[in-house]
């Protein structure tokens, strides 16, 4: 049984600056892993490297996703294979209705996988079902994607996309940023409903508070481009109490 | 950087192979000898069997043209055009006057079929491959210098609408033509309009009488086929009191190495309470990847809101031509009249676009609205040039202008040149302009959701132009959306 995601000794840089420096991480299907760490540790870089963002160069190591070499796949191929990144700052696309975007994304993935496109009525039905659980109304689906959305609306929209696309691996980058506690609960609830035996999650966050709502199976500390400590959910609480200072001095 | 780079490379590869209308129809044609002279003007007039007054009108234009020089103010560069190296008349052999579609050369019918333009009324009437509820469209097809077929004429006649080639209208309705031809774009207007006045060969004539709402969309399809041939069509649309008409033109040309000249004149006249909606989907051959060939599109389009509450609306989707020089304008003469200009201008490869509008407010409480969306890719240059002016009597004139430009890659240019003149203190003119680069992060966001790079660009661009697309007749909005994607993507539709 191969792991859903296996990262070995990963090194990556952007603009000639090395950010990831020998990172190891294994995520099995059904598990939720939290990655915590100080600013500049490489948390967002990890998510971008996994998703295949242009500009990031892998200089060493391996990434295996569902038993295949992830680094050999184009970014859209990774998405179609089931890798989803919930953005810390979701992008706005003026003039493109949210529903139009959802249809374009889902059908692009289905085409890549050789599956038939979903008909508009079927899609609408599916979207409405999910939207209901996230307090997303029909009006929001008609609005241009993320344009003028509040922080909470943007994150709920990310969760909606995640639920619709049914990825095998969800990477949530600082999903709690910009959310008040009520919005956080709605989003966390949406994420929790997606926990499944055949799905893995990586939850990247600064703060413990998100992990009160999305309870992880494993917690990692990422500092200076590598995982420096791994533990159970209690580790997050300890980190909250003592901060990241020890890892930063260690690395330096 | 990388994703945009990919798009740029993509865009660079596609220019020549993506133009799917580049074929040539093999048909015998009758051409005037190359060059322009009084003799040629007389030849064209004689070919059309024109009355003397028409010939004299042409000759006056020709004499004036000889004294003029081409305008140099547009932001376009091209070698000097040798006006003696062109044919000013080309027509498919056989007769120009056709009694029915069965007499149209089957080769020409095939050409239009290939272009997706239905000319056979029976098929249209039978609703072949047309979704339910879709409106029918009457088509006038202009092949090189002559109109080869006009559909639905009988039905339109019953409604009192005249829709026919202008060459026929000159003979059939001389009073209307004499009253209106040149009344919006005078023969002395500008170099290319004057040239057109001397040598125009065909085009469409539309007359919608008082109180009539034209029962269907009217459409003209222009096709340049012959080598070294200029196309100089002339369109005249008159909407009498309370009349309404929606008109669409489409254009394509074969892929050729030399540049071809297209210098059209379009005149619109709207009387009291009349409305004219004029839409263009322009897809002339843009030239190849190295900028060789392509159409020089030097066009004068102007509408005159001559009556109270008259309304003229221009919508254009410009994707083709090596050079576009075009400013569909409105003269807002009647009190309360209004003008609109909605434009999408896409330039790719080596294309040069200098396009925009003129809103000339003369009457009281006139209003105008300009929404322009320019998209530049490749090494193209895309300029919006617009004039909004208010005469001192244009009390209460209002204008709103929004010009947005989107750049794809870092070798193209977008420019906005607005001229605003108000001679009455009561005029309220608003102008907004933005220029942005297609965002790398937005593209990555789309790609992370599974869209290919091309699909992502298509989605973002279609979002960018949506406001304008909405103003096209529904049937053409879908077509235009596809055309936009094709112009910017590698995927050949």
UniProtKB/TrEMBL annotation, chain A:
Entry keyword set: ATP-binding, Nucleotide-binding
Family, similarity comment: Belongs to the ABC transporter superfamily. Ycf16 family.
InterPro entries: AAA+_ATPase, ABC_transporter-like_ATP-bd, FeS-cluster_ATPase_SufC, P-loop_NTPase
GO molecular function terms listed in the Swiss-Prot or TrEMBL record: ATP binding; ATP hydrolysis activity
Cited Gene3D superfamilies: P-loop containing nucleotide triphosphate hydrolases (3.40.50.300)
Protein name as annotated: Fe-S cluster assembly ATP-binding protein
Organism this protein belongs to: Aquabacter spiritensis
Location of the ABC transporter domain: 5-249
TrEMBL record, chain B:
Recorded superkingdom: Bacteria
GO process annotations (BP): iron-sulfur cluster assembly
Record-annotated SUF system FeS cluster assembly SufBD N-terminal domain positions: 157-214
Domain SUF system FeS cluster assembly SufBD core: 222-464
InterPro entries attached to this UniProt entry: Fe-S_cluster_assembly_SufBD, SUF_FeS_clus_asmbl_SufB, SUF_FeS_clus_asmbl_SufBD_core, SUF_FeS_clus_asmbl_SufBD_sf, SufBD_N
Family, per entry: Belongs to the iron-sulfur cluster assembly SufBD family.
Protein name: Iron-regulated ABC transporter membrane component SufB
Species per Swiss-Prot/TrEMBL record: Aquabacter spiritensis
Lineage, top ranks: Bacteria, Pseudomonadati, Pseudomonadota, Alphaproteobacteria, Hyphomicrobiales
């Amino acid at each position: 049984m191969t792991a859903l995601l296996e990262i070995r000794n990963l090194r990556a840089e952007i603009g000639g600056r090395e950010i990831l420096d020998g990172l190891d991480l294994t995520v099995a299907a059904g598990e939720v892993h939290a990655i915590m760490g100080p600013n500049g540790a490489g948390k967002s870089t990890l998510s971008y490297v996994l998703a295949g963002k242009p500009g990031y160069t892998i200089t060493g190591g391996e990434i295996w996703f569902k038993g295949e070499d992830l680094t050999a796949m184009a970014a859209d191929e990774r998405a179609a294979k089931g890798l989803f990144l919930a953005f810390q700052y979701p992008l706005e696309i003026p003039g493109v209705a949210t529903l139009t975007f959802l249809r374009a994304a889902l059908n692009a993935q289905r085409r890549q996988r050789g599956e038939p496109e979903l008909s508009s009525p079927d899609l609408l039905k599916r979207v409405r079902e999910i939207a209901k659980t996230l307090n997303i109304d029909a009006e929001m689906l008609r609005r241009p994607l993320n344009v003028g959305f509040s922080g909470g609306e943007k994150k709920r929209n990310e969760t909606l996309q995640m639920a619709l696309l049914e990825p095998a691996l969800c990477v949530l980058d600082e999903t709690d940023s910009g959310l008040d506690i009520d919005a956080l609960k709605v989003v966390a609830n949406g994420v929790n409903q997606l926990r499944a035996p055949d799905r893995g999650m990586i939850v990247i966050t600064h703060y413990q508070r998100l992990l009160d709502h999305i309870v992880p199976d494993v917690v990692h500390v990422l500092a200076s481009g590598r995982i420096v400590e791994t533990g159970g959910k209690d580790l997050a609480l300890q980190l909250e109490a003592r901060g990241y200072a020890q890892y930063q001095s260690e690395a330096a | 950087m990388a994703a945009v780079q990919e798009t740029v490379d993509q865009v660079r590869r596609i220019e020549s192979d993506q133009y799917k209308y580049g074929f040539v129809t093999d048909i015998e044609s009758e051409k005037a000898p190359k060059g322009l002279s009084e003799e040629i003007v007389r030849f064209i007039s004689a070919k059309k069997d024109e009355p003397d007054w028409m010939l004299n009108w042409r000759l006056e234009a020709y004499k004036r043209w000889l004294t003029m020089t081409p305008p140099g103010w547009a932001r376009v560069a091209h070698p000097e055009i040798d006006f003696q190296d062109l044919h000013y008349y080309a027509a498919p052999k056989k007769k120009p006057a056709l009694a029915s579609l069965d007499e149209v050369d089957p080769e020409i019918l095939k050409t239009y079929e290939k272009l997706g333009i239905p000319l056979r009324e029976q098929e249209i009437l039978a609703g072949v491959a047309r979704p339910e509820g879709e409106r029918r469209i009457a088509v006038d097809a202009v092949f090189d210098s002559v109109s080869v077929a006009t559909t639905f004429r009988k039905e339109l006649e019953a409604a009192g609408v005249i829709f026919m080639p202008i060459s026929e209208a000159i003979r059939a309705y001389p009073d209307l033509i004499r009253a209106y031809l040149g009344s919006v774009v005078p023969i002395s207007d500008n170099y290319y309009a004057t040239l057109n006045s001397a040598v125009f060969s065909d085009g469409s004539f539309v007359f919608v009488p008082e109180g009539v709402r034209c029962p269907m969309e009217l459409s003209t399809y222009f096709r340049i086929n012959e080598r070294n041939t200029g196309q100089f069509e002339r369109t005249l649309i008159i909407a009498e009191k309370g009349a309404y008409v929606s008109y669409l033109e489409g254009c394509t040309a074969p892929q050729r190495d030399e540049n071809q000249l297209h210098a059209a004149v379009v005149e619109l006249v709207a009387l009291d309470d009349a409305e004219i909606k004029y839409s263009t989907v322009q897809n002339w051959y843009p030239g190849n990847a190295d900028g060789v060939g392509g159409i020089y599109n030097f066009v004068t389009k102007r509408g005159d809101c001559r009556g109270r509450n008259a309304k003229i609306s221009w919508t254009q989707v410009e994707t083709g031509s090596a050079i576009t020089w075009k400013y569909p304008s409105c003269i807002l003469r009647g009190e309360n009249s209004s003008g609109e200009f909605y434009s999408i201008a896409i330039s790719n490869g080596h294309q040069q676009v200098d396009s925009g509008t003129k809103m000339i407010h003369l009457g009281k409480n006139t209003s105008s609205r300009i929404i322009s969306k320019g998209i530049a890719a490749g090494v193209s240059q895309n300029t919006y040039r617009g004039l909004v002016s208010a005469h001192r009597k244009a009390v209460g004139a209002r204008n709103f202008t929004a010009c947005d430009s989107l750049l794809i890659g870092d070798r193209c240019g977008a420019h906005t040149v607005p001229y605003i003149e108000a001679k009455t203190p009561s005029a309220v003119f608003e102008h907004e302009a933005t220029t942005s680069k297609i965002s790398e992060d937005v593209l990555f966001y789309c790609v992370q959701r599974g869209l290919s790079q091309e699909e992502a660009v298509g989605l973002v661009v279609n979002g960018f132009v949506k406001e304008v697309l909405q103003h096209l007749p529904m049937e053409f909005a879908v077509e235009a959306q596809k055309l936009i994607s094709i112009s910017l993507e590698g995927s050949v539709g």
